[in-house]
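<context>
A single protein, sequence plus fold
<sample>
Here is the protein in question:
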Amino acid sequence: MAMNTYAEVFPPGEFLKDELEARNWSQTEFAEIIGRPVRLINEIIAGKRAITPETAIQLSASLGTSAELWMNLESQFQLSKVGSPDTLIERKAKLYEKFPVREIIRRGWVPGSDDLELLEQQFLQFYGISSVEETPRLAHAAKKSTYGEVPSILQQSWLFRVKHVASSFVLPKFSPDALRRQLTGIRALQTDPAELRHIPKLLNEAGVRFVLVEALPGSKIDGACLWLSDTQPVIAMSSRLDRIDNFWFVLRHEIEHVLLEHGKEEPMLDEDIGESESEREEEKMANQAASQFGVSDEELNGYMARVNPYFFARDRVVGFAARLNVHPGIVIGRLHKALEKRNQPDSYKFLRDYLVKVRQFVAPSAPSDGWGNVFPVR
């Protein structure tokens, strides 16, 4: 038989009654001692009135106890009347602690419900897990489980949304050779931000799914490469830094991941891409390909050698960009990074008006989720 480990809780008035009997005091006498009505003492002893902080101080002064004793007795008694903890509240708290519930519902990734059972099922289905106790993991369809540093739950949530959006449409089988051939056409789009509308089509023709999903607040995601199966790569971008230089760097970075088949055993999730040096070999390879795509190191170093590296006239930058057939903003982005490495103060301030926003050009032609739009996932 299991032993009951819970002590029975009595009203504080019963302890007060015992204290008065031990001193041979009547309720009337005690009321005179503390200067309170007899009715108050009677109701406390009968369990009809709670002990307030003021009364607890008076009881402690007259009976030689502490005020905390009476307040603790009162709080224990009140809690005992409520009963056992609300398991529904516990379960809901665990759900909110584990996942960004409010943000995911707000974004329309799950419908949400006042029915906790239904709400839990919606989130289990979203993350592809069978229990709230499980930690979500996202790999390609072969379900390999070689993971390095585990992404945060905000990042995991973004990745799962990417997967749901990317799984909603069908493409031809992926061809690495076709993707390499498309690089020439993709490179030709760097002259004009409006030409970005062609990016999704060119990638799709090579069997690469391209999606835009707005990052969750605080997740610090620029892009990712993941695989729905061994032959179904996905390039996802968040457009968190909506600038032309960042867009092209992230895009080419993720294309390189696809060409090298990175992300098959774990999604290649890129945080603050291009902002810091990575120790991972995969990231170094992708960064190298991305940095050379529009403006090569050779071209950039030659330009900086010919021009005062601390003063770049607008017309010279525009002329250099025109010679390379790229938008001036791409050149500006490379110059900013080069000057930063030289510890040049205020290196990010000059000619920033060329770092134009580009999401408006690519979003209409790509599966896009966020920024006020909820992509209809099947």
Q: What stands out?
A: The chain has 17 helices and five strands. Confidence is low (pLDDT under 50) at residues 1-6, 142-147. Residues 12-82 form a domain with the 434 Repressor (Amino-terminal Domain) fold (CATH 1.10.260.40). Strands lie at 209-213, 221-229, 232-237, 268-271, 368-369.
